Amino acid sequence: MVDHSFSDDVEYDILLIPGGQGTRDLVNDAGFIDSLKAACGKADIIATVCTGSGLLARTGILDDKEATSNKTAWSWALEQSSKVKWNVEPHWVDLVDAEAQTGIITSAGVSAGIDMALALIAKLDGDQVAENASVIMEYTRLKDPAKDEFSYLGAKA
């Protein structure tokens, strides 16, 4: 259940931008992109999963910043902005300042999004909290974002 829309006057601790097939149409919806950009301006941390980074790229917020996206949609992600420093190698790209608790974090596909979320939890609340969440989910957590085993899919793009 959604508690708020972009038009509500709320501040976000973390604004999560999911990906998926719907992003293909939304990147061309100027009204949505403007609303997303405004919402991002009210967020301490912006997190994207999968092709959600393409939506964020369209806002201009990722200009001159490193980011990643789903490797099976890599060509599409690159088309969203030539000003983004797209990096095909990592599972996620972490630009969050832990002390200030502000910044941007982008991830590849769905499982990378889970790993990214757990890494963000570890950064903000401690590794034990992230480890506990991982155990509750019965999920084997990838802690090193440096190499995405699926990067070869994007490298072919």
Q: Can you tell me the CATH superfamily? A: Class I glutamine amidotransferase (GATase) domain
Number of helices, where a helix is a run of at least 4 consecutive DSSP H or I residues: 7
Cross-sheet strand order for the largest sheet: 1-2-6-5
End-to-end distance, in Å? Answer: 37 Å
Topology-level CATH name: Rossmann fold
CATH class value:
Alpha Beta
Give the uncertain stretches in residue-range form.
none
Description of the molecule:
The protein is α/β, with parallel strands linked by helices. The protein has one domain: Rossmann fold (3-Layer(aba) Sandwich). It is 39% helix and 18% strand. It has helices at 23-26, 30-40, 52-59, 74-80, 110-125, 127-137, 151-155; strands spanning 12-17, 43-48, 66-67, 85-86, 92-97, 102-107. The strands form two sheets. A four-stranded mixed β-sheet has the order 1-2-6-5, with helices on both faces. It has a two-stranded parallel sheet with strand order 3-4. Helix 2 crosses helix 3 (52-59), helix 3 packs parallel to helix 4 (74-80) and helix 5 runs antiparallel to helix 6.
List the helices and strands and how they pair.
Blueprint: E1 12-17, H1 23-26, H2 30-40, E2 43-48, H3 52-59, E3 66-67, H4 74-80, E4 85-86, E5 92-97, E6 102-107, H5 110-125, H6 127-137, H7 151-155
Helix pairs in contact: 2-3, 3-4, 5-6
Keywords:
157 residues; Rossmann fold; two-stranded parallel ribbon; 39% helix
Summed up, what is this model?
The protein has 157 residues and is of the alpha/beta class. 39% of the residues lie in helices and 18% in strands.
